[in-house]
Amino acid sequence: MPNKNLSNLLDSAQTAQRIPVKNLSPVTSSGKIHIREQKGQLQQLRTGINGLFLALFFLLPFISYEGRQAILFDLSQQQFIFFGTTLWPQDFTILAWVFITAAFLLFFITVFWGRIWCGYLCPQTSWSFIYVWIETRIEGSRNKRYALDKAPWSVDKLKKRLLKHIAWATIALFTGCGFIAYFVPARDLYLDIFSFGASFWVTAWVWFFAICTYLNAGWMREQMCLHCCPYARFQSAMFDANTKTVTYDASRGETRGPRKRNEPSSLGDCVDCNLCVEVCPTGIDIRNGLQYECINCGACVDACNQTMNKFGYPANLISYTSENSLAGKAEPFYESYKFLAYGIAALIMVSVIAVDIYNRNSIELNVLRDRQSLYRETVDDNIENSFTLKIRNKTQQTRLYRIYVSGSNAYQLVGEANLTIKPGEQLDYPVTVLAKPELLAGTRNEITFTVAEQHNYSQISQQSSFFAPI
Ligand code: SF4
Ligand code: SF4
Q1: 211 C-alpha to center of ligand 1: Å?
Q2: Which pLDDT does position 18 carry in this prediction?
Q3: Using omega within 30 degrees of 0 as the cis cutoff, is the peptide bond preceding 47 cis?
Q4: I need a surface site. Which of 222, 321, 340, 426 has the fewest CB within 10 A?
Q5: Atom 5 of ligand 1 has which residue's CA nearest to it?
Q6: How high is the mean pLDDT of the chain?
Q7: Angstrom distances, CA of residue 299 to CA of 22, 30, 43, 249, 305
Q8: What whole-number distance in Å separates Cα of residue 75 and Cα of residue 186?
Q9: Angle CA 11–249–24, to nearest 5
Q10: Could you list the residue ranges that cross the membrane (predicted)?
């Protein structure tokens, strides 16, 4: 069904007449895509969004909260710290819920705006555009870069290539540090890496992510989107007739052809300047209709609007538009079952996260019975059972706790009931419980241990068994 929508859109983009496809891009001859730098509203928007997320990516690990790094996946301690809240491996379901919610939100947005994620938010696209920006500053415009590719090796070519790869590698190294800064204390990381003082594993992981960044953004670029990204393959399943995708209005643009400015022409509005192809990071010609390679970056929209402006034609020959809009139909998106399905699924997941957070406890308790003996009889004929309480303080502050015992009998805790546990620490606390045999109902009696936190009154309880002689 979704493929039918896709093909409908493709058909509608090619309805009036068969579009003569003329690929002027040198992509096909050299196999390498050098894109023309494009300015315009959408490119400004993309640069702004990318800039914001890049700043967040690099700066978030430097934010401190309650004296600690605010966001830290501390693998050595098996804990994830997020602004004073500590998640332990047993709490990681919440992270799974967050990822599932994010996936449903992505699907939800895709129903309306197609692959907007790919064009404006995806790290692969962001880093690729940064690398192209550096390449353009060092090697020059698109045509100069193609010429440099073909030119024989010279001192100038060597200098430019060296400079470009050093700049790419530097950004890759910072990216590797930026990523690993979420796993080790960020403030020491950069200093340690650049002074060669980091441990072997930290250095290895930083370099691993640096090399991945360098290869992805410098060399693979659109190949990742075309051949590796699973989202590119299944996103069309979320499209419907109201999904806004970058589309060429063939009924207005054809028959295309070159002409002089300010001269009347009987041709369509496409002046066949080929700019839309030259700016495309995946090397496609959007005039051929909707293609899975299109990442919805909007570069061709800006390029074409620039040409339309020069020729005094109305804007948006290429634009973000839907199949319904192109056919002049209304866009009742609320009728879409996908809108409802993904929206409801996202809401359910948000509720699941809220319930999970509400039920989270800052104390963890495990009660283990003494394996050496079921019970002991004291000199004054009372019955004694021994337990080990494994109590974990899941907060990032030292906390005071008090232990209580309760059950069907009057149990008495022998020893100190108050204890202090350091942040994140687990204490193995041996306790002995005493009971009068005449008050015990049988050989196996129910007993409940409660550990209460004296700071915020949260508490946790666990049941166990108290044994007595037959
Ligand atoms: S066709 Fe246009 S929107 Fe799609 S990837 Fe190419 S430039 Fe970006
Ligand atoms: S940029 Fe616009 S006018 Fe130029 S070739 Fe592409 S569609 Fe035609």
Answers
A1: 27
A2: 39
A3: no
A4: 340
A5: 294
A6: 87
A7: 19, 22, 7, 16, 10
A8: 14
A9: 90
A10: 45-65, 94-114, 166-184, 196-217, 339-358
Percentage of the chain surpassing pLDDT 90?
54
Residue 228's Cα: distance from chain center in Å? 17
* Residue 230: both structure tokens together: 């699973």
| Vertex 464: Cα angle to 458 and 469 (nearest 5) | 145
Q: Which CATH class is domain 363-467?
A: mainly beta
Query: For residue 119, what are its two tokens?
Result: 């064009």
Q: What is the C-alpha separation between 175 and 188, in angstroms, rounded?
A: 16
Higher-confidence residue of 157 and 361: namely 157
Which residues does residue 365 pair with via DSSP β-bridges, in sequence order?
Answer: 391
Angle between helices 41-59 and 299-311 (to 10 degrees): 150
Structure tokens at 162: 């060296």
Domain with CATH 2.60.40.10 in the chain: 363-467
Total count of residues recorded for the chain: 470
Query: Closest ligand 2 atom, CA of 318?
Result: 7
To 10 degrees, the CA torsion angle through 394, 399, 400, 405? -10
Arithmetic mean of pLDDT, 77-100: 84
Whether residue 282 has its Cβ less than 6 Å from ligand 1: yes
Helices 186-194/200-213 angle, 10° precision? 80
Query: For the segment 24-34, what is each residue's pLDDT rounded down to a tens digit?
Result: 444 444 568 89
Question: For the stretch 284-293, what's the b/e string if a residue is b when 16 or more beta carbons lie within 10 angstroms of its beta carbon?
Answer: bbbbbbbeee
The alpha carbon of 459 is separated from its chain's Cα centroid by a whole number of angstroms, namely 34
Q: Per-residue confidence at 229, pLDDT binned at 50, 70, 90?
A: confident
Residue 415, pLDDT score: 83
**Which tokens in the block code for residue 259?**
């002409």
How remote is the C-alpha of 394 from its chain's centroid? 26
- 391 or 87, which is more confident: 391
